[in-house]
Amino acid sequence: MGMILTAFALFSSAPQTQPKAPNPIEAARMNNLGAAYMNQQLFEKGLKAFQQAATLDPNLAIAKLNQGIAYLNLQRVDEAKAALESALKQDPKNPHAWYNLGLLAKNSGDAQAAIDAFKRVTQGDPNDADTRYFRGTA
């Protein structure tokens, strides 16, 4: 009986793991580091930094968007689509997410999905030349 009580005392006094609070400053720093890697075409390193940023602050919508862009550059289409759609759940009008979904659809041969995504971008910025070009070519 004494051993059972001792074991219970040991387990009950063990530190409880609390979920970590978001760390927006460190998350923003990691997101910026990921952007720097992307500018150097170091897409895997950029992706890892964006993933870490999203872990540090799950509310940092740009980290999810940037993960989608990194996946797109790595030609990991399914993961890119999932990340971009996740970014749109946080911000349904995000033109950058729609633009990249349009590129993904265009490059996957889905012209109608590309046109629909690019339409969403031009609703917010009808003069975006790149979007108009890709919408026209789709």
Give a description of the structure.
The protein has 138 residues and is mainly α. The chain has two domains: 69 residues, Tetratricopeptide repeat domain (Serine Threonine Protein Phosphatase 5, Tetratricopeptide repeat, Alpha Horseshoe), CATH 1.25.40.10; 46 residues, Serine Threonine Protein Phosphatase 5, Tetratricopeptide repeat. Helix content is 75%, strand content 0%.
Outline of the structure:
This protein is an all-alpha fold and 138 residues long.
Write the layout of secondary structure elements.
Blueprint: H1 2-12, H2 24-39, H3 43-56, H4 61-73, H5 77-90, H6 95-107, H7 111-124, H8 129-137
Indicate the CATH class of the largest domain: Mainly Alpha
Structural class: mainly alpha
CATH topology value of the largest domain: Serine Threonine Protein Phosphatase 5, Tetratricopeptide repeat
Name the CATH superfamily classification of the largest domain: Tetratricopeptide repeat domain
Question: How confident is the prediction overall: mean pLDDT?
Answer: 89
Shape: globular
Helix content: over 70%
Output the helix-strand order: HHHHHHHH
Rounded to the nearest angstrom, the distance between the terminal CA atoms is: 75 Å
The largest β sheet comes out as: none
- Please tell me the CATH architecture of the largest domain by its name: Alpha Horseshoe
Number of E-type strands: 0
Strand coverage percent: under 5%
Q: Unreliable segments (pLDDT under 50, ≥5 consecutive)? A: 1-14
